[in-house]
Write a structure and sequence with these properties.
Layout lengths: L10 H20 L5 H24 L5 H27 L6 H46 L20
Length: 163
């Protein structure tokens, strides 16, 4: 669950927070045992945690809202993958201690924050598409008076009552 500081975070603060998570993960991975499985899992964690921070930076430079949404989706996946690798490290007891506890907590919060941002962005995209379709439909109808129902009486036809 996200903590109170995430409620009003600016994009810059979240960029810094995700970068801090990546930096601390790099340092944590340096402390893992030299065993091949620890190095392999540590490498996967390193990839996911650093991708979380770097992809969030890229999302802020999206050329459109749809591109932003797609990039935030990648950020959510990477943050969740980071959490998965950290949980695996804890379960197989490759490492422990307060830094692992902090990284687990922070990764859970980042997943929640970015997941919420992604859901909001997806909803905005959906509403934007819906509004665009509605505008396009209204525009077509208002620009073409001949787009009437076949049952609609034609006002221009002569009637017997008119002189």
């Amino acid at each position: 669950m996200a903590d109170a500081r995430s409620a009003a975070m600016t994009p810059e603060e979240l960029r810094n927070r995700s970068m801090q998570f990546a930096v601390r993960t790099v340092r944590f991975c340096r402390t893992l045992p030299e065993a091949w499985e620890a190095r392999r899992i540590g490498g996967q964690l390193l990839d996911a945690a650093t991708s979380t921070a770097i992809n969030y930076r890229a999302a802020g430079r999206g050329r459109s809202h749809r591109e932003f949404t797609a990039k935030i989706g990648v950020v959510v996946e990477e943050a969740d993958e980071s959490l998965g690798w950290l949980e695996l490290i804890a379960q197989v007891q490759l490492a422990g201690g307060p830094e692992l506890v902090w990284l687990l907590g922070e990764s859970r919060e980042l997943v929640a924050i970015f997941g919420s941002s992604y859901a909001t962005a997806k909803e905005k995209d959906r509403l934007d598409r819906q509004e665009k379709r509605t505008r396009r439909s209204k525009s077509r109808l208002s620009n073409n008076p001949d787009r009437r129902s076949p049952d609609h009486p034609i006002a221009d036809s002569p009637t017997e009552d008119c002189p």
